[in-house]
Amino acid sequence: MKNSHLALILAALLATSACAPTVANRGNMIKDHQLVTLQPGTSTKSDVLRALGSPTTQDAFDENQWYYIGQVTSKKGVLDPKVTDERIILVSFNQEGIMDTIKDVGGDRESIPFERRKTPTSGNEVTVMQQFFGNLGRFNSDTMRGASPTGGM
């Protein structure tokens, strides 16, 4: 009885130790040392591109607002990934392309405007019944007529 308990505990320990989390970096996690070179009122769009790279997204209604969004997620086993770190930086420019402000939006995703429209796709909307009845008699038609599958008699 002691051996079976010991084997059960050992198996449980091995099973839980095999579930190491998988860490993934998504987007552009901006570091503080990248931000110190940028000065509002003097830095241009090209300066920002050189320091931070391409923005993750631009405002859908104002091309002079750039967003840099980065996340670190951790996933354990079959569970959904959880966000462990997130940073959203907003860079806005004036009409001449000079940086007005740069600020850390934080986790305030609701303030980021996004487009809700969907891209239309072409094709047919087919129901399950149309798929089922549409495929009846389409397969193995040569073998049902008596022809050899190799093409000869």
Describe, in plain words, how this protein is organized in 3D.
This protein is of the alpha+beta class and 153 residues long. It is 25% helix and 24% strand. The protein contains 5 helices and 5 strands, in the order αβααββββαα. Strands 1, 2, 3, 4 and 5 form a 5-stranded antiparallel β-sheet that branches. Strand 2 (57-58) and strand 3 (65-75) form a beta hairpin. The longest helix has 16 residues, at 2-17. The termini are far apart.
Rg value: 29 Å
Measured distance between first and last alpha carbons: 70 Å
Q: Mean pLDDT, rounded to whole units? A: 78
| Helix content range | 25-40%
Write the layout of secondary structure elements.
Layout: H1 2-17, E1 22-27, H2 32-35, H3 45-52, E2 57-58, E3 65-75, E4 82-93, E5 99-104, H4 128-134, H5 141-144
Antiparallel strand pairs: 1-3, 2-3, 3-4, 4-5
Explain briefly what this protein structure is:
The chain is an alpha+beta fold.
Key terms:
153 residues, alpha+beta, 5 helices, 5 strands, 25% helix, flat
